[in-house]
Amino acid sequence: MKELDFSHSLSSLIDFDSLLNRQVTLTGQIQNISELAWGGFIHLRLPNYVIQCVIDREKSKISFDGLRNESAVKITGTVVTSTIKNPNLWPRNVEVQVSAIDILAASETPELPVDISKKVLNCDLNTKFNYRPLTLRHPGQRAVFRIASCIYNEFGNFLNSIGFTRICSPKIVSGSAEGGANVFKLPYFDREAFLAQSPQFYKQMMVGVFGRVYEEAPVFRAEEHNTSRHLNEYISLDFEMVLENGFEDIIQVETAALNNIFAKLKETCRPEINLLGIEIPEIKKIVTVKFAEVHEIVFKETGRDFRDQNDLDPEEERLICDYSQKHWSSDFVFVTHYPASKRPFYALNDPGNPEETCSFDLLFRGIEITTGGARMHIYADYVKKMERRGMNVESFESFLQIFRYGMPPHGGLGLGLERLTAQLCGLANVKEASLFPRDMHRLEP
Ligand code: AMO
């Protein structure tokens, strides 16, 4: 039996510098072809790289006939120092002098439905999403999702490092955790079930088990409005923990988690950051402002009066972020003490002012990226609040049993991966930070 050689598949990034003047065989796809009188260039897309391959027609006897953008090919050649440093390529210091090209699968049409060989992917959102398997191959799009991948990994890595346990909660559930009408129903044998709006109840249950838990998973919201900030399915980065001091503990952990993510992005995603021309921030100081104060600041600064509203309007979120930039030099604002009337039943009301909750939203560059807060942890408090809200206490009994067996003060948060990615990458629409976005009109691809 032939012994399999896994040395290549198990190697990490290719160290092209150490391969200088050596022969390599690379399997990838053709990002771009430039044919010139003497030969030309192929930009070959590899995992994490787009490398320049140079074809000398005379020396190599390779013809450009039959080579098409996106075809899958195996290229053999010698790694040499590159003469032109093209900023769209990575690595930039080396290129491959091609001796042979083997076409593994030719792209069917010479004219692709979207030209993904240019630096900027020039098409409208619908086209971008209709041809997602193709448009995602564009280096700018790949960069967005490499950044999302790093956020996802580092959120978990950081929480693991401070004693959190990863959980996977069910996505088919019997009720709505976040309230409201935006819940998807589905037939479940002889009854009705729902797609989870969040892992809220399960992460609270699991705090009773491990004390500190996190989950990174899809959640589902039947939002009936098509906006640039809403998806019907998104990735929620959640954690839940025992609180020693109060909901400020959650803000501390989120700040540290975000700063770790930002440091990791700078360390590992430099080519992507440069390609997108973006700036990765750092939370140098924690800025908190009470919900009621936001209304006052915005009114005083702009004359816009939102003071009778029990939530922040998207416009008001933008205005307070502008203010924060100008006066507090911060891209991040933790807005605290949201009105109890606007928060779900599980939120802990402020003992000093029961109209307010011990909760917060984190705003980043003009948009809410996180909701978090302390929860009630006494059984009788849940029953009282739910009855006051006219909720059917019995139907929540499987969740409420955790409070019958003793639960410490606890709280946590949910951070929208797509919203954070979109804000970091300067994308105008959160759907652009979703690989295969789901909205009211889109179920494919
Ligand atoms: P909330 O419903 O505010 O809170 O959601 C938390 C975060 O998820 C993101 N988000 C969305 N992203 C894209 N499309 C949507 N339709 C969408 N809805 C929400 C936002 C938001 O800040 N259980 C609580 C969290 C907690 O208290 O632990 C919850 O789900 O970034």
Give the strand line-up of the largest sheet: 6-10-11-18-17-16-13-12
The chain-level structural class is alpha+beta
Report the major sheet: 8 strands, mixed
Strand content: 25-35%
Question: How far is the N terminus from the C terminus?
Answer: 41 Å
Cofactors, ions and other ligands in the entry: aspartyl-adenosine-5'-monophosphate
Mean pLDDT, as a whole number?
94
User: What would the CATH topology of the largest domain be?
Assistant: BirA Bifunctional Protein, domain 2
The tally of structural domains comes to 2
Q: Give the overall shape.
A: elongated
The tally of beta strands, per DSSP, is: 18
Q: Roughly how much helix do the residues carry, as a percent range?
A: 25-40%
Question: Could you explain the architecture of this structure?
Answer:
This protein is α+β, with helices and mostly antiparallel strands. It has 2 domains: 90 residues, OB fold (Dihydrolipoamide Acetyltransferase, E2P) (Beta Barrel); 295 residues, BirA Bifunctional Protein, domain 2 (2-Layer Sandwich), CATH 3.30.930. The protein is 29% helix and 27% strand. Strand 8 and strand 9 form a beta hairpin. The radius of gyration is 26 Å and the shape is elongated. The relative contact order is 0.10. The mean pLDDT is 94. The structure holds aspartyl-adenosine-5'-monophosphate. Aspartyl-adenosine-5'-monophosphate binds next to strand 11, strand 17, strand 18 and helix 12.
Give a summary of the structure in a few sentences.
With 445 residues, this protein is α+β, with helices and mostly antiparallel strands. The chain has helices at 57-60, 125-130, 132-135, 139-161, 200-210, 248-268, 270-276, 291-302, 314-328, 379-388, 397-404, 417-425, and strands at residues 23-36, 39-46, 49-56, 72-81, 94-105, 165-166, 172-173, 185-188, 191-195, 212-220, 233-242, 288-290, 332-336, 349-350, 353-357, 359-364, 367-374, 410-416.
